[in-house]
Amino acid sequence: xxxxxxxxxxxxxxxxxxxxxxxxxxxxxxxxxxxxxxxxxxxxxxxxxxxxxxxxxxxxxxxxxxxxxxxxxxxxxxxxxxxxxxxxxxxxxxxxxxxxxxxxxxxxxxxxxxxxxxxxxxxxxxxxxxxxxxxxxxxxxxxxxxxxxxxxxxxxxxxxxxxxxxxxxxxxxxxxxxxxxxxxxxxxxxxxxxxxxxxxxxxxxxxxxxxxxxxxxxxxxxxxxxxxxxxxxxxxxxxxxxxxxxxxxxxxxxxxxxxxxxxxxxxxxxxxxxxxxxxxxxxxxxxxxxxxxxxxxxxxxxxxxxxxxxxxxxxxxxxxxxxxxxxxxxxxxxxxxxxxxxxxxxxxxxxxxxxxxxxxxxxxxxxxxxxxxxxxxxxxxxxxxxxxxxxxxxxxxxxxxxxxxxxxxxxxxxxxxxxxxxxxxxxxxxxxxxxxxxxxxxxxxxxxxxxxxxxxxxxxxxxxxxxxxxxxxxxxxxxxxxxxxxxxxxxxxxxxxxxxxxxxxxxxxxxxxxxxxxxxxxxxxxxxxxxxxxxxxxxxxxxxxxxxxxxxxxxxxxxxxxxxxxxxxxxxxxxxxxxxxxxxxxxxxxxxxxxxxxxxxxxxxxxxxxxxxxxxxxxxxxxxxxxxxxxxxxxxxxxxxxxxxxxxxxxxxxxxxxxxxxxxxxxxxxxxxxxxxxxxxxxxxxxxxxxxxxxxxxxxxxxxxxxxxxxxxxxxxxxxxxxxxxxxxxxxxxxxxxxxxxxxxxxxxxxxxxxxxxxxxxxxxxxxxxxxxxxxxxxxxxxxxxxxxxxxxxxxxxxxxxxxxxxxxxxxxxxxxxxxxxxxxxxxxxxxxxxxxxxxxxxxxxxxxxxxxxxxxxxxxxxxxxxxxxxxxxxxxxxxxxxxxxxxxxxxxxxxxxxxxxxxxxxxxxxxxxxxxxxxxxxxxxxxxxxxxxxxxxxxxxxxxxxxxxxxxxxxxxxxxxxxxxxxxxxxxxxxxxxxxxxxxxxxxxxxxxxxxxxxxxxxxxxxxxxxxxxxxxxxxxxxxxxxxxxxxxxxxxxxxxxxxxxxxxxxxxxxxxxxxxxxxxxxxxxxxxxxxxxxxxxxxxxxxxxxxxxxxxxxxxxxxxxxxxxxxxxxxxxxxxxxxxxxxxxxxxxxxxxxxxxxxxxxxxxxxxxxxxxxxxxxxxxxxxxxxxxxxxxxxxxxxxxxxxxxxxxxxxxxxxxxxxxxxxxxxxxxxxxxxxxxxxxxxxxxxxxxxxxxxxxxxxxxxxxxxxxxxxxxxxxxxxxxxxxxxxxxxxxxxxxxxxxxxxxxxxxxxxxxxxxxxxxxxxxxxxxxxxxxxxxxxxxxxxxxxxxxxxxxxxxxxxxxxxxxxxxxxxxxxxxxxxxxxxxxxxxxxxxxxxxxxxxxxxxxxxxxxxxxxxxxxxxxxxxxxxxxxxxxxxxxxxxxxxxxxxxxxxxxxxxxxxxxxxxxxxxxxxxxxxxxxxxxxxxxxxxxxxxxxxxxxxxxxxxxxxxxxxxxxxxxxxxxxxxxxxxxxxxxxxxxxxxxxxxxxxxxxxxxxxxxxxxxxxxxxxxxxxxxxxxxxxxxxxxxxxxxxxxxxxxxxxxxxxxxxxxxxxxxxxxxxxxxxxxxxxxxxxxxxxxxxxxxxxxxxxxxxxxxxxxxxxxxxxxxxxxxxxxxxxxxxxxxxxxxxxxxxxxxxxxxxxxxxxxxxxxxxxxxxxxxxxxxxxxxxxxxxxxxxxxxxxxxxxxxxxxxxxxxxxxxxxxxxxxxxxxxxxxxxxxxxxxxxxxxxxxxxxxxxxxxxxxxxxxxxxxxxxxxxxxxxxxxxxxxxxxxxxxxxxxxxxxxxxxxxxxxxxxxxxxxxxxxxxxxxxxxxxxxxxxxxxxxxxxxxxxxxxxxxxxxxxxxxxxxxxxxxxxxxxxxxxxxxxxxxxxxxxxxxxxxxxxxxxxxxxxxxxxxxxxxxxxxxxxxxxxxxxxxxxxxxxxxxxxxxxxxxxxxxxxxxxxxxxxxxxxxxxxxxxxxxxxxxxxxxxxx
Length: 2016
What we know:
Blueprint: H1 2-20, E1 23-25, E2 30-33, E3 38-40, E4 54-60, E5 67-76, E6 87-92, E7 99-104, E8 115-117, E9 125-130, E10 139-147, E11 153-160, E12 168-171, E13 177-185, E14 194-198, E15 204-206, E16 209-212, E17 218-227, E18 237-243, E19 253-254, E20 259-261, E21 267-270, E22 272-273, E23 282-287, E24 300-301, E25 314-322, E26 325-333, E27 337-339, H2 365-368, E28 372-376, E29 379-380, E30 388-394, E31 401-411, E32 414-426, E33 432-439, E34 451-455, E35 462-463, E36 477-486, E37 492-497, E38 503-505, E39 509-512, E40 518-527, E41 533-544, E42 554-559, E43 562-566, E44 570-574, E45 580-583, E46 592-597, E47 600-601, E48 608-611, E49 617-625, E50 628-639, E51 646-650, E52 655-659, E53 666-669, E54 678-679, E55 686-687, E56 694-700, E57 708-714, E58 718-719, E59 723-727, E60 732-736, E61 743-746, E62 755-756, E63 763-764, E64 771-777, E65 785-791, E66 804-807, E67 817-819, H3 824-828, E68 834-839, H4 842-847, E69 855-857, E70 863-871, E71 877-887, E72 898-902, E73 910-911, H5 917-921, E74 927-932, H6 935-940, ...
Parallel strand pairs: 1-3, 2-4, 12-18, 20-41, 44-50, 66-71, 72-77, 78-83, 84-89, 90-95, 96-101, 102-107, 108-113, 114-119, 120-125, 126-132, 139-145
Antiparallel strand pairs: 3-10, 4-9, 5-8, 5-10, 6-7, 6-9, 11-13, 13-16, 14-15, 14-17, 17-18, 19-22, 21-39, 23-36, 24-30, 25-26, 26-27, 27-28, 28-34, 29-31, 30-31, 31-32, 32-33, 33-36, 34-35, 37-38, 37-40, 40-41, 42-43, 42-45, 45-48, 46-47, 46-49, 49-50, 51-52, 53-56, 54-55, 56-57, 59-60, 61-64, ...
């Protein structure tokens, strides 16, 4: 056993040794799979290889994942020279077709292959060796090994919680994060891969999934590295974790997480939000170092490479409050600070401060100028290479922030130390955060002093974190952050809102008891320092599961033997209902109960609670069951019932109530009155009621248990005093329509002699048109009065007419017929109530006899007739006269035609019509001739043509002429017409032709053939129709004078340029046109010597080098010439040869410098040259001035400045300098809009203006800044209030205390910093002289007197001057007012409301500036106390025992100076009339024009009752309460009044006391009762089969139709055989009634039982007719169709319903019967809404109803109804794609299979068809492969129903492309372009060689040589290719024998074998002529290598694509 083991061990050892020592010879050949051993030549390790060998061997790895390596330890072979020798070729692959790595031969070390690695998918190397027959060498030895290449490994990270939008993970401290590593392995092998996590807090974890949490706040960069089994590593995946970040400083609120409850229970709501206060106080706390923004990359750069500098002021786009100030600008300082007190003129940020300079402080500047320090320390951005200092506004309103970052800025004097820190300022909250990533200490500079904090502008208040002030220095820190939070008075308001948005609490912690799912919202309102509210909200949802039971308590009690159950939550009960029971209504053996009253436990544990005592409060029950507590709440209020008894006493317009029970309740109408009656709810007094009206009044107590009592009262009745007046010529006649026996009188006595009979009311003796108001008063028990107005009739008002003038007729005798009535309207002035007649004599007119006819022929000329005008209403008349005149017309000649030559050939011209006047008038004078466009205008003498006339009809138009006398004003005229003709002017070419010759002898003259321009001039006109002549000037051409005799050989007479004129004349119309020809003799360009170009040395001042725009000289050189091209050159030779031009911008090479300018005529090519000098001038060097300061008089930051104050300092002695001043840099640079003194600044407080210092010699300038500063002046009130003192002695002199104005003048200004004096003159105040000393007892000098105030700032000497007046005032002089009287109000209690202020004007005599104050007592008036608060609505009252009526008030009048005078005012209350208020309504039936609801009423019948005998009062009637109250528009004829409101109208009666005018208004209604309606009843038809004409009719069935909507209970309907019976209500018919005739008419009477109104009429006919039958055989009728293929396949389609007619009629003659169809049985019965013949069903199947009508005669109305079924069979339902792509014309390269179209339906239920685009049937199968492109139609037919459906689809063909590709650029182009085009039916993409695919066929920047363009179909239908050759030359070659670029040859030239190529050296020496077919030039000349330099070549070749022979020259480089 032991021996066997040993043997096995040696066998294993020998086997391994043989593997390790394997020798492989190239002569072994074949393929060897090994990763060990040594590779030799055929001679092995010790021998040499043989002669003439040719071996090949392939060495491959042992597995697919490996590649072979060969490391050649030695290598020696016979070198290969001239194709002869021994060589080893190594191929990168498993055969000799693979890529050649190289051919190796030789004996040197450089000849060895060295280390070779296979780089191909097989991992193999193939080695080929060849040797010749000469000597052999030792060959080679190479070590064989293998290695496995790395696969691509990618790593990424997933996490929970996931990343936010910026790619980071935010977590709280100690919150667990789940990380998941995601690996990608290109080789697919993930086995044994390791995942290494670096958590950035010293923790390293391994595994695909890891967990981690952070206990320290900060930013952590978590990384993942994946290593596979082959030790190949991935990229490093990274994610940032933000742990424990402090909440941002923006407004926020969190309501907490949502809560889920199984049962209702108390829930503690707790909101978290940012507590913020005013900015007068701050709190400093340390926060987590988690910067919200990166330190790098903010958008705005600051102080780039500038040390110790303030950046320019920047606008802060949001409101930021800082120490109580609103900041809107900021500046960033380069030493780590920000300030708000910006100063644009201060650009230096101080750096020097020491350990003693602590925040807060106002000095030194390094700290004193700043507000926020992040920290402040001396850092140096000028030396830093990093991003340095930047800022950015981030976010959106109202959550914006300003972030300022100082990134990697070097510490001054310690350049190896970098500081990084950031300031973040939050909008709305005004929070400031400071983040310090790194703050090193440079101890060698300023002791490393630094400070962090904030301070106010004055440096008096500040805040610093502990240990971070200057005195704490030196200190160093990293990753530190501080927050500065405003903690003054809170600016926030917190609220909890419920689901409805109602506020339920203002505490952040709050308990709620939700009983159902609801939400609560935490709302925080931040009020910014500008007062804007910013609201943030967050919602929490509490999900409450439905409790397992409900508790809904009710209250139960017994009342009148019944149990009352109340389910309300709040219950009002009276104590008399006790006892009561509260029942929880929840019973359960497992439940427990607890009852509470107002939160106190009652100790009851049952499901109900008995209440026996009246305890008001909240009763609560809590039920605990099934592990849930459910509660319910009821509030019960108890009270006792009250006594509500009262009494009523009737009055005329209402009643007076007396409460006999519990007072203090309220009165109301039990039934709302309709007559305007009102009731006082407090007293119960009724007013405003109608006479005789009855009212039900209820009185309700208002105690806890109210009760109500109701009483009825009826008002009294008044007399009727209505009457009517009929106007007469001298008065009127009265008719009493009311209560007779009264008396008449004038309401206002007349002054014209009119009298009235007091008994009859007849008026006589009045004047025309006079108005009289007549009053009629009754003498009944309740007297009333009525007033009517009457107007006496007047004669007609007429107009004396103008003469009637007419034109004479055909017989010029002055006599003609005329229509006299045309004067009617003029005479009557259009009054339609006047009648006009005409008479021969005045007597006839006065008597109205023998009128003339309307169409009257005069008997003399002129003639006068007489006119009579009668008022048709009053028969009054008036007369006048009318003159008649007959006029004759003038004679005239007919004019000739007018012609016009039209220049623009549009048929329109200008005519002078007035030139015809002499011809027309033929010598006559006194004629007016006018021209008109129409005959009508001429006849009406309107729209005459004035001045020259432009015809409106093209080419020909007739104008009409009117000739009339200008001396006689008539309309008689003579009419003619004239024809206007427009001829076209020849339409030649109006643009100047040009003929040019060159000036060969410089004299400017040449020979021209003018006829060469004829064709261009005629512009297409026929030459035979026109004559062409030429002229030397335009005048001759216009006049056809002096034509050019020799136009074919014409020498110009003006040198160089001449214009000749051509005239083209129409041979027929003689119209002509002219144009011009420009003759040009070209000359050389004329160039003007330009001035030197001067530039100021602005760019790098002092180097005397600038960039010139050479073109600036062109204007002067050309002097306005055009067409001359200008180029510039450095030498005259270049300018002459047009070589080496220079271009702008051009940098001068010396100062001054001369260059050369060439001007070439762009048309003729002639040129001239000239020189141009370039000069660079120095710029001025002004001094930056000190600020200019001025006192600001009004302290608005603006005042006037003398901007020239610092002029001498700025110029600083420099010569030739002038200064100008500007508001902007741009204006200063452009010298526009200068400002002059005095200048009023436009930027408050401090403004920078810009001073332009300009050298007046060179124009060069420099700009410096000048600051203008306004110094605040003392602040005075805008208006200093005058001091007014009342003076009782009227001398206007008194003593004033001026110091009482001190406080107003100083305001908040310190008395120690300001001096105040008073002066008597303005000059004294301005100079400060002569101040008033006795300011507390100063006696005025005049009245009024002005005192001047001087207030001086003792610190800056600024002074403000103000003034006020001393006024001595006198008491007002007032008037004793008359008594103020008012009528009593609705309650007759002698009290009413007065507007006392109506007496103000009377008391003050109209002085509106005085104040009038009213008092009830004299003591109050004198003391100025207890003034009447509302004098506009004062109610008189008893004062100090005095009666309330009348009452004396006391009045105080105060003038504007405050002085007072006193008087009294008496107020009196007058009584109102007391009429009856309950007059009865007046009712009539609507018999007059029934249906209009209007009748004529005598509304005065109630007048006597209403007045009720009261004396001294009168009644008037009105249509509205407003009119009655305002006494306007009374009803004129109350005895014959027609209602204006339909049906029912209220009449308002105003009863007025005739003496006082006080009145009372009562109302009653007038009612028009409608007549009953007789409904439209169709004839009653009885249908019988085989009818005999008689039938028993039930008439009662018609009653409801006759009544319609009228209530049958209120009406009686009777039927009668005659109208007379119906009218008399006799012989009433009884149902059933048998007709007497057929047809027979019946009559009806309808009476309203309530109103007694009735109506009769012919009601209807009764008739017996033959019946109709529908579908008599009873077979169901149905109609079946297929669905419409053009609409949705939904079972709805169009039916032709007439297809059912035959089934329905069943043999009845269609001529005698009509069939109609209906959707419902109701429509069929009513014969309404018939269905159309073409009908679309609304359901499927659908039942419709068919009506058959008997139409044998037109009167037949019998019909029958049946039903029918409509059925729609659905079409086959299938779809196809909208389109299919199919490959056609394939070539075998396609990537996709054939296209199949499928009808997806069962083949046993349907048949199929496929129709191709040609319309042919191509297949009958369900599936089909298309054979062509185009529209295919698929058809499926249902075998059962025969319904067929067609669907179309488009087959889109696609094919491989036929490729067209060409090189579109020329050979040897700078850049080569290949344009490829694909021909075919597909969509294609393109590729050049192995490049990327692209959709465009254009390839740019193509390298020389042959290229393959490949085009492939995007749909996969194949590819096409095309070879393209680009000819170009290589730019260099390297003839070093390495096999690469060893020769130079033009690439692609071999395709042009006839080309010749020459190579030259740089001196032009020919070195080589190349054949286009050769390998190229090897860089030698005569066998000797040439040096590395540039060489030139020329090639003569044929341009590809053309037959053009070209020569190309260029150069290339030889490199060695």
